[in-house]
Amino acid sequence: MSIKLFIICMTSVFCVGYVSGDYCYNDVVGACSPVGGEVQNCNARYGAFKSDELLANVQNYANTHILRSFQFLLMSSHFGNYEKNRAGFEKLYRKMSDQTWEKAIDLVKFMGKRGAHMNFRYRKEEIKERQMEYELYELASMAKALDMQKGLAEGAHFLHGEVTRRKEHDAEVASFLENNFVHQHSEIIRELSGYTNDIKQLIGNQPDPSLSLYLFDEYLQKAI
Amino acid sequence: MFKLALLGVAVLFTASQNGVQGKMTCKLPQVVIPDDWITMVDPCVKKMKEQVQEELTAAMTYFAMGAHFSKDTVNRPGFAKIFFESASEERDHAIKIIGYLLMRGGLTKDIAQLIRDPQPLSETWADGLSALKDALKLEAHVTRKIRDIASTCEEPGRDGQDFNDYHLVDYLTGDFLTEQYEGQRDLAGKISNLGKMLESHGALGEFLFDKKLLNGNSV
């Protein structure tokens, strides 16, 4: 009798000790035993995503894409009004709005893949940064777009640094950023820098650059 | 000495070049354009602008549904797929409304007010059925708003501007309302089918339904 009791005691101690580890399997063994329990370790969170700090940074990066997408849309709309009437600029910024929107969706899907979740309300940036000027002339808008794209590229570099050098090494997150963000960023930035310098040279020191801008806009309509 | 002179000339040259660059004319002159073709009246324009924010709020809500059903612990990729698609569709509607306003001579100023940081109405759902029900309520809300624009733009009277905007109302009823009614019927059908299965086959019903959605089958 006392031996049986001893064995039961030993087993239960063993079980409790076993269940307390951070493993899905242990959770399942616990949940399927008469004691029952949650299976909170049965998730896809591993590597760098175990850190809440990285998760917050990725959420912030996705929210920045959504914000930028709407900002590019407003820049595009401005050039679509009858006074501005620059279909090429309108098309260029619309393309950027579409791209940043798609990238936001990709980031949210990626978070789901890695056992993380999106929080649409989390943003690191200052609120004042959202008060942007949209009603810009051609060269200024191109300059603004270039700066915005550089910001997005640097955001990707920051995350890449977090998962390679600074925090827990995570090859999959690094590879995701490389394949889906950084190379496209370098291409867009080079394109916008080229346009900005072209416009600057075309305007030159003419008192009236309206014909140059008209022709450049026509070029943009075909080039995009 | 000669070198110094050369340097001096070079400095002068760059300085003069900088001087020229500093005087770039970047802004173009305003052109006087007749405005009697701009016929949309204020109460109607106001409603149309508000609709952009409405559509984007719907887009963000669908975006949040997509995010929710993409979670590993929820794991309903079929639901996530249709909601991500709906999010982009709602965004397209907002862009169509902006395009219409631009076509009618609108949006020449205060464009920043058009999009005011739209946020999802909710970020988690108990199950697929409750998300579909929320989606149907959201669509019904958007439909009411579109009808509201149509009625305002038919008789904007209040401010003494008596202008029945036939074209806008035709565009809204033809393009937008058709899509709204078709979308609502589709959602109601999905809720009906999934709801029936849940009566006795809860988790399994939703699991199978999700795979149908993922494969693009009509359900």
Structure explained in plain terms:
The complex is a heterodimer of chains A (224) and B (219). Chain A has seven helices and no strands. With 224 residues, chain A is an all-alpha fold. Chain A folds into two domains: 2-32; 47-223, Up-down Bundle (Ferritin), CATH 1.20.1260.10. The longest helix of chain A is centred in the C-terminal third of the chain and has 33 residues, at 171-203. Chain A is elongated, with a radius of gyration of 26 Å. Mean pLDDT of chain A is 89; it is low at 9-19. Chain B is mainly alpha-helical and 219 residues long. Helix content of chain B is 69%, strand content 0%. The longest helix of chain B is centred in the last third of the chain and has 49 residues, at 166-214. The model of chain B is unreliable at 7-21 (pLDDT under 50).
Draw up the topology in text:
The complex is a heterodimer of chains A (224) and B (219).
Chain A (H helix, E strand, L loop, with lengths): L1 H18 L4 H9 L19 H28 L7 H27 L24 H29 L4 H33 L6 H14 L1
Helix pairs in contact in A: 1-2, 3-4, 3-5, 4-7, 5-6
Chain B lengths: L1 H20 L20 H29 L6 H27 L24 H27 L11 H49 L5
Helix pairs in contact in B: 2-3, 2-4, 3-5, 4-5
